[in-house]
């Protein structure tokens, strides 16, 4: 197989249309048709089938697309490794981080990193863990700092610290007017992240285990730095880490319920077979050695 054929194949698969693919790669449609023919003959399997005016991947096509992207990522990382081998502790590191860690952990990490390597550049992506892990698998970022990931054969995750997720509300909220149980929280509405987020899933399952309906979500948002200000101004409940109370400017309190406290392991994740540049390796080392200590600052 010719690597150029694979690159063209990936564009065709992404576009789902031969004309658009030809325009993107500045080739003619007959040339791309021949590319597909060569690949299909080499592999002994059809890669596309007609879909109206476009085309869609067959099962074999999906397998080849996955492998093609893996090979492209390997080529890119090989080039980076060769450059890094000559350059040492310099270049760029791409870090994905959940909002809590971005606020409470990464400033101290960057302080030490820039002292060690003042010439490097950093791209910091702040998002929810599920989105960050997808970017990590695609090779768009080098490291993810967030909740631990278990059971993923393609990702290595090392624990660096722990935190606790708790229910919070405005300090004027009526939930504080009397002793409360988990069942009492059913009567209030909530601000929570999307259902794909692990903490939301845990909370939903906790209510269900106690024979209760899931929390009624009035505001769903993955922008976590807005949660405490919203909780302060509304009668909503939220589910956030205790770390947010340390530097919180909003007037919120923890709704103390042991059964609604989620112990969360925080980790450093990277691709099992991916390349870690010297700079990324240095970030990982800082987090391994000082992660728990820095998170307490």
Element-level helix/strand string: HHHEEHEHHEHEEEHEHEHEEH
Strand content: 15-25%
- Give the proportion of residues in helices: 40-55%
Q: In terms of per-residue confidence, which ranges show pLDDT below 50 for 5 or more consecutive residues?
A: none
Instruction: Provide the gyration radius in Å.
Output: 24 Å
Distance between the termini: 54 Å
The major β-sheet equals: 9 strands, mixed
Strand segment tally: 11
Which structural class do the helices and strands define?
A: alpha/beta
What is the tally of helical segments?
11
Q: What's the overall average pLDDT, rounded?
A: 87
Overall morphology: globular
Describe the protein.
The chain is an alpha/beta fold and about 300 residues long. About 45% of the residues lie in helices and about 25% in strands. The protein has 11 helices and 11 strands. Strands 3, 4, 5, 6, 7, 8, 9, 10 and 11 form a 9-stranded mixed sheet that branches. It has a two-stranded antiparallel ribbon with strand order 1-2. α1 (about 5-15) packs across α2, α1 (about 5-15) crosses α4 and α2 (about 20-25) crosses α3 (about 30-45). The N and C termini lie far apart (about 55 Å).
């Amino acid at each position: 197989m010719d690597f150029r054929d694979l690159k063209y194949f990936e564009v065709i698969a992404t576009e789902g249309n031969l004309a658009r693919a030809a325009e993107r790669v500045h080739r003619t449609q007959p040339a791309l048709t021949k590319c597909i023919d060569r690949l299909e003959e080499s592999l002994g399997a059809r890669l596309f089938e007609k879909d109206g005016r476009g085309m869609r991947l067959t099962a074999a096509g999906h397998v080849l697309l996955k492998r093609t992207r893996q090979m492209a990522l390997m080529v890119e990382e090989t080039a980076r490794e060769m450059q890094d081998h000559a350059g040492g502790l310099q270049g760029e590191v791409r870090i994905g981080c959940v909002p809590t860690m971005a606020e409470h952990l990464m400033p101290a990490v960057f302080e030490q990193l820039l002292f060690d390597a003042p010439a490097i550049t950093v791209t910091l992506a702040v998002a929810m863990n599920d989105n960050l892990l997808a970017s990590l698998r695609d090779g768009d970022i080098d490291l993810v700092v967030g909740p631990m990931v278990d059971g993923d054969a393609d990702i290595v995750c090392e624990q660096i610290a722990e935190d606790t997720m708790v229910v919070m509300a405005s300090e004027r909220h009526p939930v504080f007017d009397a002793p409360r149980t988990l069942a009492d929280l059913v009567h209030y509405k909530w601000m929570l992240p999307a259902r794909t987020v692990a903490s939301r899933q845990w909370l939903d399952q906790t209510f269900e285990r106690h024979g209760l309906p899931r929390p009624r979500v009035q505001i769903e948002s993955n922008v976590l730095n807005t949660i405490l200000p919203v909780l302060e101004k509304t009668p909503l409940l939220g589910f956030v880490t205790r770390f947010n109370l340390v530097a919180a400017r909003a007037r919120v309190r923890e709704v103390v319920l042991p059964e609604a406290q989620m112990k969360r392991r925080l980790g450093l994740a990277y691709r099992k077979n991916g390349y870690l540049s010297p700079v990324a390796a240095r970030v990982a080392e800082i987090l391994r050695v000082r992660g728990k200590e820095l998170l307490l600052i």
